[in-house]
Amino acid sequence: MRPEESARVGELTLTAYDSYGTIDGPYRDLLADPRQRMDGCSALLVAELDSRVVGTVSFVVPGDGEWEDRPEPQGDAGFRVLAVDPTAEGRGVGHRLVTDCIDRARTLGKHRMVIVTMAWMHRAHRLYAGLGFVRRPDLDVRFPGGVGHVLTLDLTPDAPRRFPAPGPVPSEVPWFEDAWDLR
Q1: How far apart are CA 153 and CA 132, in angstroms?
Q2: What number of helices (H) and strands (E) belong to the chain?
Q3: CA proximity to 152, closest of 142, 166, 141
Q4: Burial of 181 from C-beta contacts in 10 A (0-12 / 13-18 / 19+)
Q5: How far is residue 129 from each of residues 1, 104, 132, 151, 183, measured CA to CA in Å?
Q6: What is the CATH number of domain 3-179?
Q7: 34-60 burial: b if 16+ Cβ within 10 Å, else e
Q8: pLDDT at residue 21 above 80?
Q9: Is 43:104 a contact under the CB 8 Å cutoff?
Q10: 110, 180, 171: which is closest to 150 by C-alpha?
Q11: Which of 34, 72, 88, 164 is 20 to 30 A (C-alpha) from 50?
Q12: What's the pLDDT at 26?
């Protein structure tokens, strides 16, 4: 993302999220201002169609501020805040942004990607499933805006040996602060 694109990226991010559900509170402010996320991720990417920014995603690895400093033994790369302008949906923008993140992870020698997607983001779930991501309900967490589904994608054949196998699914989805021990 170039600095002059930040207002457009913030606008399209809120528009995209609002078309599926509602994000309120301080996190909404973070979505609206990508400059707050830029230094905390390995790459803040944009997609353009006809010279107009129509999509964005933040590529992250452990150690990045946008990784949220959570312990994540089930993955060593991921992405956050994938957003596509609703007027550009169905044109491969989200697919291209996600595959770019996957390619970046492979180039860095990463073995598994892990992402969190809100339970109400059904279109995103279809995209992720089509790319091979699988849900890990044993890692799901609750946020003020709802339940976050954790999805993983093995990038190398030995990924299953490098990371813990899925564990038992808790009877109640834990709050993210408790599950990620952010205290």
Answers
A1: 6
A2: 7, 7
A3: 166
A4: exposed
A5: 27, 19, 5, 9, 32
A6: 3.40.630.30
A7: beebbebbbbbbbbeeeeebbbbbbbb
A8: no
A9: yes
A10: 180
A11: 34
A12: 83
Q: Do 110 and 103 contact (CB within 8 A), yes or no? A: no
User: 39-76, pLDDT tens digit by residue?
Assistant: 889 999 999 999 999 999 999 998 888 876 566 556 78
Report the pLDDT value the prediction gives residue 70, as an integer from 0 to 100. Answer: 60
The burial class, CB within 10 Å (0-12 / 13-18 / 19+), for 143 is middle
**Which tokens sit at 116?**
């969190």
Cα 21 from Cα 27, distance rounded (Å): 14
Domain spans of the chain? 3-179
d(CA 172, CA 183): 20
Q: Is 144 left (phi over 0), alpha (psi -120 to 50) or beta?
A: alpha
